[in-house]
Amino acid sequence: MANLRQTPLTCSGHTRPVVHLDFSDITESSYFLISACKDGKPMLRQGDTGDWIGTFEGHKGAVWGVALNAEATKAASGAADFTGKVWDAISGEELHSFQHNHIVKSVDFSRDSALLVTGSNEKLIRIFDLNKPEATPDVFSGHTASIRHVQFFRNDTHLISCADDKTLRVWDRSTQQEVQKLSFPHNPNSLEVSKDGTVLTVAYSNKVTFFDAENLNKIREYTIPSPVNSASLHPDKSIFVAAGDDLKVYKYDYQSGNEIESFKGHFGPVHCIKFSPDGELYASGSEDGTLRLWQTTVGKTYGLWKCVEGATINDMSTPKEVQAN
């Protein structure tokens, strides 16, 4: 292998552990990245450079889950202040705040951005209609412990969730009933639906498991050298990345499970990792309070990586406070 050194871009600005992140789709202005942090202040960044755009101010507790809609016009966040909030991602203003009875761990937008789904420590999933925010949400019950992740699924006809009851469940939106369930020996830590909707990537214990999204049959499973908190499959399904308690980010061949490379850059356990929509980089968030952006192909000129021999990229400066327009 060429002796190219991976130089991650370090995105500072958060003051507590970064626990979740999400990318928009590719827009006219490239793509965007949002991060959830226990400091209660989700941040929006330019996805390919990590440049800070703004901070969403309003939560009164740790933010556990975030989402961007495809066009990066709306953001959502779920927090320990028992609210799920929706934001205008252009202006930064709060559009909606939905009260819950416990910590909101996960949020996601429908494809048309008209609906918001939340998963909470109440063990319930709720769907809110953003065009009728006062309306009573649809509620899905069945999990017996706190919900970690929930997403719209199968062209928004279903939902998929995982929880601390060691299960993953699929819900039919039209009947609000559970229609499929997978049980695990340990709690699933992360859940990702592939870009084309065909593969589920689940991390639990020290395993990364891939399932057929239609029938939930296991496609393959690989063991990672450390407890895994998060894993992400490349949009073209050639490779996947995984990270967890040993501070490293790992890259593997999806077909063979062979480790391609691993890098250490964080100073604390890695809580979340995800490929960008174009697959050119992956972002990781850590207990150390930083996000890092890693090149999928080390040595390629992309974003801020101008690959000149011996060049290094300085850490980004701490973001300033958001200026009022």
TrEMBL record:
Domain of life: Eukaryota
InterPro entries linked to this entry: WD40/YVTN_repeat-like_dom_sf (IPR015943), WD40_PAC1 (IPR020472), WD40_repeat_dom_sf (IPR036322), WD40_rpt (IPR001680)
GO biological process: spliceosomal snRNP assembly
Transferase listed as a keyword: yes
Keywords: Kinase, mRNA processing, mRNA splicing, Receptor, Repeat, Transferase, WD repeat
CC per GO annotation: SMN complex
GO molecular function, one term: RNA binding
PROSITE patterns recorded: WD_REPEATS_2, WD_REPEATS_REGION
WD repeats: from-to residues: 56-97, 97-138, 140-181, 263-304
UniProt family annotation: Belongs to the WD repeat STRAP family.
Full protein name: Serine-threonine kinase receptor-associated protein
Native source organism of the sequence: Sitophilus oryzae (Rice weevil)
Gene: LOC115879303
